[in-house]
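Encode chain A's predicted structure.
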Amino acid sequence: MPPVPRTDVPTVIVTSGEPAGIGPDLCLALAARDIPARLAIAVDPDLLAERAAELGLGVALETVTAGGPAPHRKGSLQVLPVRAAVPVTAGRLDPRNAPYVLEMLAAAADGCRDGRYRAMVTAPVQKSTINDAGVPFRGHTEWLAERLGVPRPVMLLVAGKLRVALATTHLPLRAVPDAITPEELLATLRVLSDGLRERFRLVRPRIAVLGLNPHAGESGHMGTEDRDVIAPAVAAALAAGIDAHGPIPADTAFTPRQLADTDAVLAMYHDQGLPVLKYAGFGNAVNVTLGLPIIRTSVDHGTALDLAGTGRADPGSLVAALDLALGCIAS
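Encoded structure for chain A:
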């Protein structure tokens, strides 16, 4: 694959995600606006042309090597061609296209690592379909970390000024306590603090660390993890120069008073922090992977199979993810 020339106009690669979902629709929506970057849409060009026809959109599709380094202008999209294994019907999953989805991710991740692209923005994938194809897949975050040789990625979701990171990601709830240790939490806090400085230009980010149990364990009467695991990790983080405090009861951590002195919240598990974040900004929130050697942002929602090909998919989160990626490039 020929390299994309590096210029003062950054090139961002956008992966179109699950082909039967709304990912292709969202990518087509990017053709409706000017963007101060060059875009490369990783997708099967025939699929994208068919979806554009379904939606009644007149979008000119060009290969990513055409047109030079000029910024994206509305009315057209530059495509990095990746071929689907079998024809795609909107809303109808087919595990035979799982390798196609992973090939797009590999092209984007490798291209960012090698300097062809300055950032990677991902549309949603269908985890179950990739697993049904026989490929163990927990999510973008874990897959990218393995691909790029990173031991500890951190998932951070952003909705305006609200930032919520996760100590554990896609784990069954019963597995969460065993996955949380003082060493693991301290390592996560390091990645989170460094990422907030590097990506968001926060000089000394203030991190609120949630407790695991109700009332942060109530001094050990509702579980000992907060006292014996989380509190020592926070103390070690403070000793290492990380501005962390906690454990804080999760039921009061998201009040305006608490958030006024907080740059990010570290939740212990997926559904402890993300329901609040998505309530605050669903459809315009962004998923950021910290700890990678590349910039990666993503939408905050799933594949929405029932909306694929209908024209009712909201591109707000993809646009926000692209904007945040460009902001990270500028930093």
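The first strand starts at residue 11 and ends at 15.
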